[in-house]
Design a protein that fits this description.
The protein is an alpha+beta fold. The protein has helices at about 10-20, 25-30, 45-50, 85-95, 100-115, 120-135, and strands spanning about 35-40, 60-65, 65-70, 70-75, 80-85. It has one domain: Zincin-like (2-Layer Sandwich). The chain has a three-stranded mixed beta sheet. Strands 3-4 form a two-stranded antiparallel sheet. Helix 1 crosses helix 5 (about 100-115) and helix 4 packs across helix 5. The longest helix has 16 residues, at about 100-115. It is globular and about 30 Å long.
Length: about 140
């Protein structure tokens, strides 16, 4: 996709779905019930919980459907795991970095999921590099 205007909510949703469909295998095994949500910004409660200085600090947030609060898991879960992507912070970073928006979004998704599944920084770097090369 090429953009002369910033990608819309729907554009990001389509792009994220394509990225998730082709996510590195080591992440895919953790993402069977992953739902992707696009919001403009994190809400005030999350900002407060994460002690964010401003809304542009957070580009994505993963929440396990098995957790009722951080560190407390349900015995059985009916809720999906949710990856929320924050459109405005992602677009802000895209404008500053001058990188392809697909690369930015892919990196945000892979890094957020990998951090939550306890991959090391080296493993995350290797995954993002490998996934980047597989895109082109």
């Amino acid at each position: 996709m090429n953009f002369t205007v910033p990608p819309s909510h729907d554009d990001l949703e389509v792009m994220a779905a394509a990225i998730i469909e082709n996510i590195p295998e080591e992440l895919a095994e953790h993402c069977d019930s992953l739902a992707v949500v696009i919001d403009e910004f994190p809400d005030e409660a999350l900002e407060h919980e994460l002690e964010l200085d401003d809304q542009f600090e957070l580009m994505a947030f993963y929440k396990s459907g098995r957790e009722i609060s951080p560190g407390v898991e349900l015995k059985s879960a009916n809720d999906d795991d949710v990856l929320t992507l924050y459109r405005r912070p992602i677009l802000d970073y895209w404008c500053e970095s001058c990188e392809d928006i697909t690369v930015v979004l892919r990196t945000v998704i892979v890094e957020e999921l990998a951090r939550n599944f306890d991959f090391s920084d080296d493993e995350i770097s290797e995954m993002t590099d490998r996934h980047y090369q597989g895109m082109f």
